[in-house]
Amino acid sequence: MDYFENVPKVQYEGKNAKSKYAFRHYNPEEIIMGKPMKDHLRFSVAFWHTMTEDGSDQFGDGTYQRNWEGSTPMETAKNRVDAFFEILEKLGAEYFCFHDVDIAPQGDSLKEFLENIDVMTDYIKGKMDKTGVKLLWNTANMFTHPTFVNGAATTNNADVYSMAAAQVKKGLDVSKKLNGENYVFWGGREGYENLLNTDMNFELDNLARFYQMVIDYAQKIDYHPQFLIEPKPKEPTKHQYDYDAATAMAFIQKYNLEDSFKLNLEANHATLAGHTFEHELNVAKNYNALGSLDANQGDLLLGWDTDEFPTDIYTATLAMYEVLDFGGIAPGGLNFDAKVRRTSFAMDDLILAHIAGMDTYARGLRAAAKMKDDNFFEQIIANRYESFSSGIGKQIVENKEDLESLTNYALSLNGVENKSGHIEHLKSLLNDYLV
Ligand code: XLS
Ligand code: NI
Ligand code: NI
After folding, report:
1. Rg of the chain over all Cα atoms, to the nearest angstrom
2. What are the pLDDT digits (tens) for 259-295?
3. Which one of 40, 41, 132, 420 is at 20 to 30 Å from 408 when CA atoms are compared?
């Protein structure tokens, strides 16, 4: 069955495209800085938002018009996979991501769930072989089911910890089966509600122990996707342990996990943590841990994870600048961890929303490449830190000075002269790259 019969395969038609089902900026094969746009961007569609949601919120019922409901949970699951691969093909997106619960009904027991995962991943593998679409990452959902009310790898309940282990073991088996390039850990319930009953140190030790088991099992089955931790400050847990990139890196370094773990950074999580997206990417870059991106956007007027499709060219440009500066995002990619608004309930909104996101990041890539080409930031930075390139500054960065020698130097000065940052002027120059 054709689920989107009125939607053609989306092509690049340029800025004057007539069809709304066309890319106006994303031209997959166009070479930018030596490689095709599609290889810079490595777009991925998220199974959960795209296939399993209905548009309901705390105040109202679902609104999305969908046509893949079957007569049994397994039939619905298969229909969803069919429709999903149709979307991937129509968009020309080469990657996808999913949680275990997105693709397989949980049934009444862990055993049934694991069996359903086997059946469904066989089915998905068939589709992948036929279409050439690849798995960017999979993950285990250990935050929806009531079992994980007190956390998964940071729970107080050893039986629950074991349930989490079983789900992640299966996740790694699936990653191997489907050639996953990354495997994600987002700890929705890994955090605490109140310190009155929480041993934070114990919980973090257990989390690290869990990750060590993951590394050991990957070794055992000889499959090595890049492991990614996805930071988020809060929601659903009040205080989440992987608060932001810097906090996640402190954890990774404390437990010596840096050889196996990098970060999956999400734009909306960055803003929830009080950072810009580019701040999070910059931090990760500095730790050599820029793994992959959940390319969405939040609403700065709202304090929660709205998971909107990215349409902000400003952020997309600065994010792509960090990606280019890091030397690329592979084996990671740009996953649209985003959902259409409740009011965008038509089937084709799923396609239109992805086109909007892909065009936005294509524009970001183009602008960032031009900025790289012009050495835009390099010049600003070189100029701003000029005092460290010669004289006493050079001595400092070469570690040739100490507090006493610098005191003598400071005493010899006749006051200091600071330079203006000219920040408004720089913002205006940046605007020239965007429009
Ligand atoms: C939720 C997270 C989630 C992860 C995968 O806020 O973004 O969707 O990306 O579990
Ligand atoms: Ni995410
Ligand atoms: Ni999120």
Report:
1. 24
2. 999 999 999 999 999 999 999 999 999 999 999 999 9
3. 420
Pocket around ligand 1 at a 6 A CB cut-off: 99, 139, 184, 186, 230, 232, 266, 294, 305, 337
Distance (Å, whole) CA 274 – CA 270: 7
Q: Is 102 a catalytic residue?
A: yes
List of the chain residues with pLDDT < 70: 1
Write the CA distances from 427 to 33, 101, 310, integer angstroms. 24, 44, 21
Q: What confidence tens digit (pLDDT) does each residue in 211-235 have?
A: 999 999 999 999 999 999 999 999 9
pTM > 0.90: yes
- Residue 95 CA: distances (Å) to CA of 9, 31, 135: 16, 20, 5
Separation in Å, CA 184 to CA 172, 195, 260, 335, 380:
10, 27, 12, 12, 36
User: Whose C-alpha lies nearest to ligand 1, atom 8?
Assistant: 337
329: CA distance to ligand 2 center in Å?
16
pLDDT of residue 1: 65
Q: Closest ligand 1 atom, CA of 335?
A: 9
Residue nearest to atom 10 of ligand 1 (CA): 186
Please tell me the CATH superfamily of domain 11-373, with its number. Answer: Divalent-metal-dependent TIM barrel enzymes (3.20.20.150)
Domain residue extents for the chain: 11-373, 379-434
The encoded tokens of residue 71 equal: 């007569």
